[in-house]
Known about the structure:
Chain A is of the alpha+beta class. Chain A is built from 4 helices and 7 strands; from the N terminus they run ββαβββααββα.
Amino acid sequence: MIKFFLMVNKQGQTRLSRYYEHIEIHKRTMLEAEVIKNCLSRSKDQCSFIEYKDFKLVYRQYAALFVVVGINESENEMAVYELIHNFVEVLDKYFSRVIMFNLDRVHLILDEMVLNGCIVETNPNRILAPLFVLDKVAES
Amino acid sequence: MPAPIRLRELIRTIRTARTQAEEREMIQKECAAIRSSFREEDNTYRCRNVAKLLYMHMLGYPAHFGQLECLKLIASQKFTDKRIGYLGAMLLLDERQDVHLLMTNCIKNDLNHSTQYVQGLALCTLGCMGSSEMCRDLAGEVEKLLKTSNSYLRKKAALCAVHVIRKVPELMEMFLPATKNLLNEKNHGVLHTSVVLLTEMCERSPDMLAHFRKLVPQLVRILKNLIMSGYSPEHDVSGISDPFLQVRILRLLRILGRNDDDSSEAMNDILAQVATNTETSKNVGNAILYETVLTIMDIKSESGLRVLAINILGRFLLNNDKNIRYVALTSLLKTVQTDHNAVQRHRSTIVDCLKDLDVSIKRRAMELSFALVNGNNVRGMMKELLYFLDSCEPEFKADCASGIFLAAEKYAPSKRWHIDTIMRVLTTAGSYVRDDAVPNLIQLITNSVEMHAYTVQRLYKAILGDYSQQPLVQVASWCIGEYGDLLVSGQCEEEEPVQVTEDEVLDILESVLISNMSASVTRGYALTAIMKLSTRFTCTVNRIKKVVSIYGSSIDVEIQQRAVEYNALFKKYDHMRPALLERMPVMEKVTTNGPTEIVQTNGETETAVLETKPPHSGLQTGSQANDLLDLLGGNDITPVIPTAPTSKPASAGGELLDLLGDLNLTGIPSITAYSKNGLKIDFSFERSNTNPSVTVITIQASNSTELDMTDFVFQAAVPKTFQLQLLSPSSSVIPAFNSGTITQVIKVLNPQKQQLRMRIKLTYNHKGSAMQDLAEVNNFPPQSWQ
């Protein structure tokens, strides 16, 4: 089960955070800071899976952005690694340019892909269908 | 009032903030604007404001005033409003807030909405944060949606059902009929989520598991289609079609095939096929292979398949990609218990991984290496592991040292090798060794009688250069103390013995005592060792006497006590000194009470204690016999009353008993812990029979002044290695003139059998004023903590 989904930049600022398990708000900032510290201190040729407290972190770096996913033991780490890549591809497809100004859309995409910690849909077209509908409704 | 700014402007503005304070200021300003906008009940801009609020919440600022607004948004008819409202509900609300229950009606209506996207939103929200009440109310709706033909809704409904089952397990049966057709879908999204639903049901209930076993052929067919089918642009990821679904199906097969022969047999072919046909050049393929291997290991597969799986893992280990090596090591660790021999074949690769740069890989490799050590390869493995201990990061050293100790204990080919290995560990990672390693090692050395000379030689050489590593110094001091005579006499068959004089030995022990690097415990060991040498050495007894008397005024209470007692041994009890300081006998391998000087060598004390007990009970049975005789009608038989025991056993240990204090029936003398200003506190002790590390102290507080002491509170603190439990006192008033006492029970857990010390704090009201005092209790008798 996926516990949380984070997108962080190299300076350590959170760009996106989604938790599938309830954590207090001040604990979240501490958690994010620690997780980021762990990921940033890894070099390029080190393993992408880190063991942190009682769950595992799977992270992937795309230019200046880190995508970090926290999972528990029952999940296949490599499948989650692929999921991250899938997510980034979908984002690429929808947003032609800078992502982060449309945070609600990103949340929408994430909701289409992951529900309550489990993967729902991985096909980019099907994920983006409701978003196109939403865009059309918003324009009209 | 001007229109509130859009979300993207807000993000842009916040990004320009250069310091945390600036950012906070901006956010506070914006929050104020949002709050006044909410108060105005402005419908048009509400969704924009809530969106901004969610962004600020993500940055870590409180956003609870937006919760009701989310509800209003959900109730609105516009899709954009609903969208933000539901997102806000998922991010801001959870079960603990009362507000979420108000959502139930909205969600119910939206689940029956005409637009599928709205229904999807409602399902998503319910699936993420529905509480058990909400789930119970809405489960019927979810189940209806599970049967609909709309695949967009079906997949979401399936995951929503998973959440409902997690919250309210009793509703599982409700979803059972809907699952019948789930696997017949063509849509991969629905398939994927249905498999998740089935997995969840099988994990929760063994009946469901048995019921779903009949689905195995169908699952196998789906998997086959996925592998066999050609390129399908919809689901392709790097040449493999829908790897996510493949992985999910494999996991479900694993659960279904566990402990069941028939299902396992049905799966064998497909697993072999997946294992051989999957492309391994990309990460995707490896992900599928990893899941396949896990499945093969878990079900009752045939041995050929298992060998195939382990070979796949072996190939993973040689791969350059770190992720794959990590994954391989993890799975090997899981399988090493069952398929030990197969994993042994890859031992050399695993040992190579110890030298990898990556921390996660090193840790896995270390754990796996320990699991692989057996009688045949122990020498080679130990060499590698000791080399690893030398060069690894500090966070590993403690675990590695413990692992080496365990492995050495189980598989040591010879005692000498065992001692060598332990010494090597102590010298390389001495400060990271766990506390119980020292007594274990001491026990080991004592039990290998023929190795004493060799051991003490090596230990002496080791601390000659460097005495900063505490466990090593402790063990060395103990051994030198015990076997000093062997050291000085220079008998050692194995290596070239080192010629040591008594003075040199005392030099090193004294430098340990003086050194700032030595912990208090280590000093204690050194002092006791010096004392023991007074019987083993012949020409330096005066020097020893001098050293011992110097430390009689040491600031460290522990050392002072020891020195004073040893001094007393020299002076008053010199005739007993040889007996007391005799060589230790071979110990049994029982880990309850550690060996101590006084209890072991002076066995008379023990028997003395025991003797005083039985007569007391004998006296009681005597009086019972009397009553019985009375009942029988008073015959003229005089009952036999056993003679009262001698009040003090007159053995050679008698004078030692004086040293130890009064012996009462429980065997442990009580002490006066505190006596000041008319308040006296006595401690009496009992050792628990069930748990030898627990000491039960009963305190009695009495008051000899002429006024009562009220609101009496007793508090106690102990050093970190102990645990303390204070039970409630009998009362909080101590009556005057010693006419009554307060009793309170303290339980002390002392797993390391260290000397008991306690700091107590007393607060009470006396003569109209509040009194408070702190004291330290150090005069605990040795039997209370040994």
